């Protein structure tokens, strides 16, 4: 799998969360949430065909489509999916939409991409099948619910948008509140 710039994607699976991030499964390790619960995560802001979008930190081919929930899909290799057909999220495979319980833990993701990236962090509504960990979740569905945009835009967007324009555009695009952090 390659990113939008042709380089290799850098997946960050559950094993790379590390013991301090993934922790232990909670006693009620799995629940179905018909209504959304709030979690935290980070995204990369990218311009695609003149539209500012949120993109996965770990997979550059996953864009969060405005006004449409993100649906978990297994991005692991095809051989594994053939040997073990499954729906995402899967506790056995670790695929799904990752998010965290506390805002402080988002710093883990904010430092993951390259310095040229513009990192957005904020709250995310998650629902459907959800696995609960000590510090976070792996869910079936997600949508951003509140965004914090950076005061300094990364190199990739610096010449096309200011911090305030980024805040306003993402707020308008995703129909959520956003502020500059």
Short description:
By secondary structure, the protein is of the alpha+beta class. It has 6 helices and 8 strands; from the N terminus they run H-H-E-E-E-E-H-E-H-E-E-H-H-E.
Q: Strand tally, please?
A: 8
What gap, in angstroms, lies between the N and C termini? 33 Å
Number of helices: 6
Count of the domains: 1
What is the arithmetic mean of pLDDT? Answer: 81
Verbal overview:
The chain is an alpha+beta fold. It has one domain (23-180). It has 6 helices and 8 strands, in the order H-H-E-E-E-E-H-E-H-E-E-H-H-E. Strands 1, 2, 3, 4, 5, 6, 7 and 8 form an 8-stranded mixed β-sheet that branches. Strand 2 and strand 3 form a beta hairpin. The protein is globular. Mean pLDDT is 81; it is low at 1-22.
Chain-wise SSE layout:
Elements: H1 14-17, H2 19-22, E1 25-48, E2 51-56, E3 63-64, E4 70-71, H3 78-83, E5 97-100, H4 107-110, E6 118-133, E7 136-149, H5 155-158, H6 163-174, E8 177-180
Parallel strand pairs: 7-8
Antiparallel strand pairs: 1-2, 1-6, 2-3, 4-7, 5-7, 6-7
Keywords:
single chain, 181 residues, alpha+beta, eight-stranded mixed β-sheet, 6 helices, 19% helix, disordered N terminus
